[in-house]
Structures are given as structure tokens and as C-alpha cells.
Predict the 3D structure of the following.
Amino acid sequence: MNDTAPILVASRTDTGHVRSHNEDAIGNDPHLGVVVLADGMGGYSSGEVASQIAVNTILDELQRVLPGLNPGELDPELGYTRQTMAVREAILRANHKIYQAAQQDTRHAGMGTTLVMAAFHGNQVTIAHVGDSRLYRMRDRRLEQLTTDHTLIQELVDHGYYNREEARTAQNKNLVTRALGIEPSVAVDVLEGLALPGDVYLLCSDGLNDMIDDSTIERTLLEAAPDIEAAAERLVERALNSGGRDNVSVVLTRVLDTHPKDLPWYKRITKILKRS
């Protein structure tokens, strides 16, 4: 049985001031410990089709697979946990479905989406992403970006042609080098780590981090702490007040203490029943 970490989730999404429709998609299953965000691309509403396929497919696949897994069990060949391998396979399944949908309907030719997600299990978290949607972690009052953008500008930063501040204003900063649905296969970056009580994980589309810098994101989270609902609202509001040139979406996840008083009621009941 999958031993999910106790979490609280808050999310917000907004079309912004420029775009006519929202191509971002967000989803979560707190009981399963999964949060997902996708930022679609493509004309004739194809972006929102791609992002919704990604979120729905991943949640459906993990709801089917994760409950039957043993927490922390390692894949003997690859060295990742079974949960991480399930996450990767769900993303690859989403890539296949988007690609097939684009091949079968010329209106959606070339559609794709970024993807960032986290799956919490026990005291572990699996992080996976494709594209430039980001995941940040707030721990001990310090914000850290845990994903690396799959963009041309990030590759230039890595090779020393730009620094991070120059990259923020570069004309080609949003040109992604990876996305779901563009090719029959895709490389998925995965990361495993400890999820500590009090950690806050932020998933966001580039409509957030293009509009406000990391120091503003950090300050906003600190000002609202520990209220992640208020934090999500303020992050989106500040992105809109800074121009709102793109769809903006955020998903905030706070890892709870496993002490019964800090858990949601349904988790407290389960914990008490296990002890009796």
C-alpha cells in the first residue's frame, strides 16, 4: 500500500490580461499525494487540449497504480523508487496520448505542453518535469528552485553566455527545448528527495516567474505563511499587477507534521484506527 505523506494543497489559475483563453491546467489528489501543473502551447485552443490531456492522464494513471505500490521499494535496475518509476511512466503515457491526438486531428497539429509535478510518499517526494514550468521549495525560510528549465536560454546560461538576470529579459527566454506531445518520445527529468514537515512546494507556469522574480516569490510566501491559500492568491495577484502578459497558475503544497493534531480529520481517524 502506498504510504502518502500528509499534505495540504492550494491552487490558483488566471487567464491574465493579454491572452483570450487559459492554456494552463492544474490538478491534484491530496489523498494520493500528487500535484500536477501543465502549460499548453498550440493554436486553435490546442494548448489547453494538450495541457488537460496531460493532467488528466497522469492523475488517472497514478490513481490506478500508486495505491498498490510498496513505499520506498527500489527498482533493482534503475535505482529509483517504484513511485518514481510510476510517475515517469505516467508522464510518458501522457506524451503518447497528446502526440496521438495531434496526429489524428489536423486542428491540433504541433500541440504540446510543459509539465511539472510532485508525488509525496512517506517522507519522500518525487519531482518530475518537462519544459519550463518550475518547482520551487521553501524550507527554513529560504526559497530554492529545484527544477532546471528546458529552454534555449537556460542552455546559454549553462554555457556562460548569459547570467540569470540577463536571461530574465532575453527575447528568446520562453523557447522550450522539451515538451510533451511534440515527438513520439520525450526525456523526463526526475528527482527524489526528503519531504520535511513545514516544507512548501510551489509548482508554477512561466506566467508567474516571468512576471515576478524569485525574491518576490519568496517574500510573498513568507508574508502569507503558513496560509498557503492566501499565498496562492497573492502570488497570482502580484503576477497580474506586474503585467499579466501570460496565463498564470500556481499550486502550493505544504507538508504537514505526522503528529495527529496537525493532520486533516480523515488522516487523524486513520492514524487512531491503526493504533487501536
Notes: The mean pLDDT is 91. The CA atoms of residues 9 and 253 lie 5 Å apart. The chain has eight helices and eleven strands.
